[in-house]
Design a protein that fits this description.
Elements lengths: L1 H24 L1 H28 L5 H37 L1
Helix pairs in contact: 1-2, 1-3
Length: about 100
């Protein structure tokens, strides 16, 4: 269930813009950009999972807390909230326009 929720959050709004962006950017440029972004996202996800495994954390906030103390834990929590707000605003903007 968590995987599906993450996929909807990260991919849901972006996939709605894809047809228009492919048309505007061209097939080769869009394909290359999409492949590079996918590769970078994959590398970051693997590194994040390795870091969580190395510090024996149960979540992002625990990992930030073990790396930078209480301030890191708070900062990670703030960025998670801002990220979710960004997804929501992008989705609402897409629906309204």
């Amino acid at each position: 269930m968590t995987f599906i929720t993450l996929m909807k959050g990260f991919i849901g709004t972006a996939i709605l813009f894809m047809p228009r962006e492919v048309r505007l950017g061209g097939y080769l440029t869009t394909l290359f950009s999409l492949a590079v972004c996918g590769l970078l996202s994959y590398i970051c996800a693997i590194k994040l999972l390795q870091a969580a495994k190395d510090c024996n954390a149960k979540g992002y906030m625990d990992c930030g807390g073990k790396a930078y103390g209480e301030n890191g834990k708070t900062l990670v929590g703030i960025f998670i909230v801002l990220s979710q707000m960004g997804f929501t605003i992008a989705f609402i903007y897409f629906i309204c326009s």
